[in-house]
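Exam revision sheet. Question 4 asks you to relate a sequence to its structure. Input first:
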Amino acid sequence: MGDDQRGEQRIVRLRRHAVCLGGPAVTLVVLAAVTGALVGRAPSAPGRLVLVVVALVLAVRFVLVPFARWRATTYLLTDRRVAVATGVLHRVRRDVPLSRVEDVLVVRRPWHRLVGAGTVRVVSAGGEPLELRDVPRVGQVRETVLDAAGPGRPAHTTPHAGTDG
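Answer key, structure tokens:
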């Protein structure tokens, strides 16, 4: 998701918070431990092979796929737009021009607060909100979007929806 060819300047480019990879990392460790224990007790070579193949399939589904999705999801803020790109095989990009930004909301659940992350919702005129999920340094990202939207943005911008700060 590079900068636009029309002289657009990148302000910030980010990914979802790395804490999103916590589940896949734990899954990988547990899967490796269980597979090792079961393979060590398997009475025959074909039984061990079946266990390893099953473990590999589970690792792809519950470790590699979430990592690939995390890696493929990017958020971009330029001097003209906010963009979200998702998808590993089927890429989808959604943009909101800064000139159409009406509000920027932050939603932080308890887990988000512990790791300093949250979801930024960019509300645009006449459109569906654009969600930047699990953003690190969520307060800074919100302020950066508001600053980029500039003096033309409404004064009614909500500081932090669904949080205490």
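Marking note for examiners. Strands lie at 10-15, 74-78, 81-86, 92-97, 101-107, 117-124, 130-136.
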